[in-house]
């Protein structure tokens, strides 16, 4: 079964596989004519094809699954975004990394098929059952709690279904009740790029591209502890502006970018800005100043719980302290540096 059977899909897939290879990296995705507009065309086309093969969503399809707490593959068109925005650049990175992981982009010197035959759920799902997404059952769809960039990656690669775990049932409640409830519990993000409070769109094709969401990720030092013996470190790709311990505050990158947008900083960050290695230090330092000033002003309470660095020297000192700690089971739950240092022990 070839999920890229249409002419338009063949065109874009060939372009992708020419550009993103194990030896080039995501930056080449931009340098050879690939654009956000072309990406959206592929997403819309694949969603149309996937939705043409399934029944419209109704809650009765999933009541038994929720009661049994079983993981199951469901039509990707039944998944409802839990946010209004995403980062196209993050998806491009994921297209590269997941393409390598699933051998879509073969090792150098090995012939590869520039089409994807998903290996899961009878050839319809990109991700396996073991990587199921958590969703909430509502009257208007299965609301995705996390994994929007991975879902967009799967859609781009032609997946028609995705594995989910229904963790909560909010059926019988209007959208005007569901969305504020989810947001208040850190399970949804309802701000548009303009700062407007809105409900998320029903289609992944209608999410807004947030370049500052990617920027805030690039200037973060990420320290993820999934067990005392399993630590994943993602160094900043530029200067260290802040450190993210584990999953931190829900939607933290979006919240930081919201502050930057309100200051007018958004017009200064372009695809050329983030592609520059290293990133322009003046841009990074301006963002640092905006966030530190916002924290001092006290207008954004969540900033009091974020480890922002006043300069690189402080960043180096804090990161050194974090790396010196031997994590424990409690460290997995830490959301900031203070909690992490308290939870662990020094060898």
H/E series: HHHHEEEHEEHEHEHEEEHHHEHH
Highest-level CATH class of the largest domain = Alpha Beta
* Uncertain regions spanning at least 5 consecutive residues: 1-32, 106-115
Q: Judging from the principal axes of the Cα atoms, what is the shape?
A: globular
Major sheet summary line: 5 strands, mixed
Number of domains: 2
Beta-strand fraction estimate = 5-15%
Summarize the amount of helix as a percent range: 25-40%
Rg measurement, Å: 21 Å
Distance between the termini: 54 Å
- Which structural class should the secondary elements be placed in? alpha/beta
Q: Report the strand count.
A: 11
Mean pLDDT: 85
What's the architecture of the largest domain, going by CATH? Alpha-Beta Complex
- Kindly identify the CATH topology of the largest domain: Conserved hypothetical protein from pyrococcus furiosus pfu- 392566-001, ParB domain
Instruction: Tell me the CATH superfamily of the largest domain.
Output: Conserved hypothetical protein from pyrococcus furiosus pfu- 392566-001, ParB domain
Describe this structure in words.
- There is one protein chain.
- The chain has 347 residues and is α/β, with parallel strands linked by helices.
- The protein has two domains: 7-204, Conserved hypothetical protein from pyrococcus furiosus pfu- 392566-001, ParB domain; 212-343, no CATH class.
- It has helices spanning 7-19, 27-31, 36-51, 63-68, 88-101, 148-156, 175-184, 211-218, 252-262, 271-275, 281-297, 312-324, 337-343, and strands at 72-75, 79-80, 85-86, 133-138, 141-144, 161-169, 208-209, 220-227, 230-234, 242-245, 307-308.
- The strands form three sheets. It has a five-stranded mixed sheet with strand order 1-6-4-5-2. Strands 9-8-10-11 form a four-stranded mixed sheet. A two-stranded parallel ribbon has the order 3-7.
- A hairpin with a 2-residue loop joins strand 8 and strand 9 (230-234).
- Helix 5 (88-101) crosses helix 6 (148-156) and helix 8 (211-218) crosses helix 9 (252-262).
- The chain is globular, with a radius of gyration of 21 Å.
């Amino acid at each position: 079964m070839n999920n890229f059977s249409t002419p338009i899909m063949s065109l874009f897939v060939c372009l992708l596989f020419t550009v993103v290879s194990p030896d080039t990296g995501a930056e080449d995705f931009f340098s050879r004519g690939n654009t956000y507009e072309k990406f959206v065309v592929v997403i819309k086309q694949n969603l149309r094809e996937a939705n043409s093969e399934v029944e419209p969503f109704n809650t009765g399809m999933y009541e038994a699954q929720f009661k049994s707490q079983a993981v199951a593959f469901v039509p990707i068109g039944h998944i409802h975004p839990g946010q209004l925005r995403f980062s196209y650049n993050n998806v491009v990175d994921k297209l590269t990394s997941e393409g390598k992981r699933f051998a879509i982009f073969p090792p150098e010197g090995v012939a590869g098929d520039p089409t994807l035959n998903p290996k899961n759920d009878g050839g319809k799902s990109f991700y396996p059952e073991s990587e199921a997404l958590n969703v909430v059952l509502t009257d208007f769809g299965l609301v995705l709690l996390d994994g929007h960039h991975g879902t967009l990656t799967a859609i781009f690669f032609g997946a028609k279904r995705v594995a989910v775990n229904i963790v909560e049932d909010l059926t019988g409640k209007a959208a005007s009740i569901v969305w504020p409830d989810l947001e208040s519990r850190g399970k949804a993000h309802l701000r548009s790029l303009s700062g407007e409070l809105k409900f998320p769109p029903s289609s992944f094709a209608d999410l807004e591209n947030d370049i500052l969401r990617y920027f805030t990720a690039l200037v973060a030092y990420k320290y993820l502890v999934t067990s005392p013996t399993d630590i994943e470190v993602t160094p900043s790709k530029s200067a260290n502006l802040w450190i993210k311990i584990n999953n931190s505050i829900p939607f933290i990158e979006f919240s930081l970018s919201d502050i930057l947008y309100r200051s007018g900083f958004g017009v200064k960050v372009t695809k050329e800005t983030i592609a520059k290695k290293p990133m322009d230090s003046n841009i990074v330092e301006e963002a640092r100043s905006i966030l530190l000033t916002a924290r001092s002003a006290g207008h954004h309470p969540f900033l009091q719980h974020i480890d922002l660095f006043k300069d690189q020297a402080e960043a180096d000192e804090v990161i050194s302290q974090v790396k010196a700690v031997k994590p424990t089971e409690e460290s997995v739950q830490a959301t900031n540096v203070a909690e992490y240092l308290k939870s662990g022990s020094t060898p």
